[in-house]
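Re: duplicated header lines in exported structure tokens

Our pipeline writes sequence and tokens for each protein into one text file. With two proteins the header for the second block appears twice in some exports. Here is an export where it did not happen, for reference. First protein block:
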Amino acid sequence: MGKTLMIRRSWRLLLAALVIVLLVVALGIWIWNRPAPPASLEHLNLDGGAPLTSVTPATSIKTRIALAVTAEEMLTDKQLLAISKDASARIIQVVLPKDDCVLQQKTFQEALAKLDGPAKVVGGIGPGATLAWRWLAEQTDDKAQAISVGFALEHVSNPPPVLEEDEKPPQICDVPLPQKAPHGHWLAAWNDAPDDPSAAFVRDQTNADTSISDYDIPLPQVLNTELRHLLLGENDSGGLGIPVVEVPARHPS
């Protein structure tokens, strides 16, 4: 009788231990497979009044991204939150003031300070595309990445640019554009064929790649797709099927 009770007790202990092991395994599987918690988003204004969107992942920060855009062409809150969550990225997106390139550069520098650490990736649209290149030219880290969407060379104020009929006037800026970026990588992307001088400038960079997507793809979507490709390896985010024409950069022989 005593032996039988001991056997039953042993089986109960074994069964209890097995249940505990199964619970621990199930908990581990759930923790491993559970969706990443959502990022948090905040709308702010810089001291100069420029609107800033600040996004922080719920997980530990793996990279920091700064985006410079216009009021007409910016990433949506949904896109920013998705990138932050999927890439564990701390992101700021600043809306640049119009027409004044000096004020734009000052605004961007003020926005960079809100990242609470050095940016690893900088992306921009329109005048922000030029700022992304200027930022890259100042970097000393070969892992720095800049994405310029809709990049176009700026023009000095004097002499003024000579325009053809219906030609879009260029951005005016008297601050010299850096001719080289010794470190990092540059991607210039458009949704239409760039003008010849801008295309030639990009092709002259040994650390640049370029692409042209369909005309009907909005520039913010081009930037979103390129960011997700860079950070997550996605080739066709959102099923857009963006056709891309690669324009090779000049490489040293």
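Second protein block, exported in the same file:
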Amino acid sequence: METLINDLRIFTEQNFPVNKVTPYLRSLDLQKEQLEKYCYFNRDFYTRNLVHKEKGFELMVVCWSPGQKAPIHGHEGEKCWARIQKGSLQVCNYKEISSDPMNLDLVDRVLAKKGYLDGPADIHSVENISNDIAVSLHVYASPFDSCDIYDMETGVKNRIQLQYHSMFGKLC
């Protein structure tokens, strides 16, 4: 994990070049044991488990029980990547057509399995549609603590405050 964090520091100095970060994260070979201390599940909601955070980036493990979903949300225009470490997740990417009225266009829908890398993402939803747990590793350049949630039924975009379920291997 320390090697990954040190490499992300180097990418921070380079403003996270997509042409370097993407292949690096695609080839990443983290062992299950390296992630275990950050894997906390909850039967009612997916969990955001902070591994490391500094000014230039944030590293997080997200744990998904069957049926759990992150609603359509934005990433504040920042570069972010999500790598499937265990199980599979459905990732739907969207493009904002207009903000008033809110209108999103589904760009693609992918069933992402272990090793799949999504990103850099802008607006997307993520869902565990399988009967098994899933774990994803997320890298956020220039971390943010709130984001926009897009409600397609009401046509409303709401800003929410983000929270961690655990930090540095300990429950909050």
